[in-house]
Amino acid sequence: MTNKERLKKLFFELVEIDSESSKEGKMAERLKKELSDLGGEPYEDSAGEKMGTEAGNIICKIDGDNDKEPIILSAHMDTVKPGIGKKAVLDGDVIRSEGDTVLGADDAAGLAAILEALRTAKEQGVSHPPIEVVFTAYEEGGLNGSRRLEFDKLTAKKGYILDSSGKVGTMIVEAPGQEKYDIKIKGKPAHAGLSPEDGVDAVKVAGEIITKLKIGRIDEETTSNIGIINGGEATNVVCPLVEMKGEARSRDEQKLSEITQEFKKICNEVADSYGATVEFEDNRLYSSYKLDKEDDLVSHCTEAVKKLELEPAYKATGGGSDANIFNSNGIKTMNLGMGYQKVHTTDEFIPVKELENVADLAYNLITL
Ligand SMILES: [Zn+2]
Q1: CB 3.0 to 4.6 Å from 139: which of 48, 76, 98, 200, for a disulfide?
Q2: pLDDT-based confidence at residue 318 (cuts at 50, 70, 90)
Q3: What separation in Å is there between the alpha carbon of 182 and the centre of ligand 1?
Q4: What stretches of the chain show up as alpha helix (H) in DSSP?
Q5: What is the whole-number distance in angstroms between the Cα of residue 361 and the centre of ligand 1?
Q6: What are the transmembrane regions (predicted)?
Q7: 277 with 303, same domain?
């Protein structure tokens, strides 16, 4: 099994590296050094240049038994805000942040666990498949790094992402796809006091559209939202332009495309009835994924979890992760529970035992 003290030391050190999204430069440097020490040749891809941020994704191959199928282990390098000056504190049997920042166990726990698992495997000289480590940049707020990942640099066709809430042993076997909507409603300006009848009021059109759209939870696996509305220039002008931004998610691809079609249809019909026009832009951020319990990726992980005497749990989520992007790019990938809690808040913490479990799980995944 992995070295608990060394794991904790590395975790504490990684937490103390500032790595807010888009500013992961120092973290990338440290991780490259760790990977080089393990005998790898880390490569930083072009995602950072494309995004205009400090770091791209780090890809590193660790040699293994070529008779075995290569496998990806991945975690992300960035944290949400407030994440400057983080300090991890051991508080009984949990690790939390010192105070005013997130802890950043999301996803330093994943980074530390992967590195410790590789180090232990190397020390013990155990047989393992070739491993492709992928540390992604700018994951928070849009999976920005993985969407620009140089997938042609990877040969593995399956992998695990260490980046989900839920106890260790949790496997995210279903995750939704997401569509993003940009809607521009164009009316016609007119003086609101002198000749309102000459105008076409985009606010009124937007209002009617919103009352007709199905917004919120649509069913057990489908949601939608209009999160931003902007428009108007002055109280005495009939509003000529309203912009709305929204999204829809579903674990069922068919339902997701039906919602998009319905949103478009409602926007156009209502706009037509007022003599307004609509520009409706929909962008697919990522696709859904669904894995069977019988799938080798899932059954292998189940075995790895059971060997730790933990309880396997198969969950569906409403959120997206790098696993969606990997799956969309033809790499069968599952996101795994990390045991951290209250992520994205300054109350974030991880039980020491769960940090240890994650590293042992990563070790089992590559050595079983
Ligand atoms: Zn995360």
Answers
A1: 76
A2: confident
A3: 26
A4: 4-15, 25-37, 47-51, 105-124, 144-147, 202-212, 253-274, 296-307, 322-328, 352-367
A5: 18
A6: none
A7: no
* Same domain (yes/no): 161, 202: no
Domain with 300, as residue range(s), is 4-175+288-367
- Say how far apart CA 171 and CA 169 lie, in whole Å: 6
CATH code for the domain of 248: 3.30.70.360
Question: In this structure, are 162 and 192 located in the same domain?
Answer: no
How far does residue 316's CA lie from ligand 1's centre (Å)? 16
The predicted pLDDT at position 346 comes to: 96
Active site residues: 78, 139
Domain boundary among the residues 286, 308, 334 is at 286
Tell me the average pLDDT across 42-68. 97
Q: Taking residues 121-147, report their average pLDDT.
A: 96
pLDDT of residue 201: 98
> What is the identity of the amino acid at 289?
Y
How far does the centroid of ligand 1 lie from the alpha carbon of residue 227, in Å? 22
Residue 122, pLDDT > 90, answer yes
Number of separate domains in the chain = 2
Q: What is the mean pLDDT of residues 274-296?
A: 94
Mark whether 278 and 190 lie in a shared domain: yes
| Domain co-membership, 190 together with 272 | yes
CATH of the domain at 344: 3.40.630.10
Domain identity same for 66 and 82: yes
Residues 22 and 35 in one domain: yes
* Cα–Cα distance, 208 to 214 (Å, whole number): 12
Closest-CA residue to 26 (of 85, 89, 102, 100):
85
> Among residues of the chain, what percentage have pLDDT more than 70?
100
CA of 6 to the centre of ligand 1 (A): 22
The whole-chain average pLDDT of the chain stands at: 96
DSSP string, 311-365: --EEEE-SS--HHHHHHHTT-EEEEEE---BSTTSTT-EEEHHHHHHHHHHHHHH
Whether 297 and 224 map to the same domain: the answer is no
User: Does position 3 have pLDDT exceeding 90, yes or no?
Assistant: yes
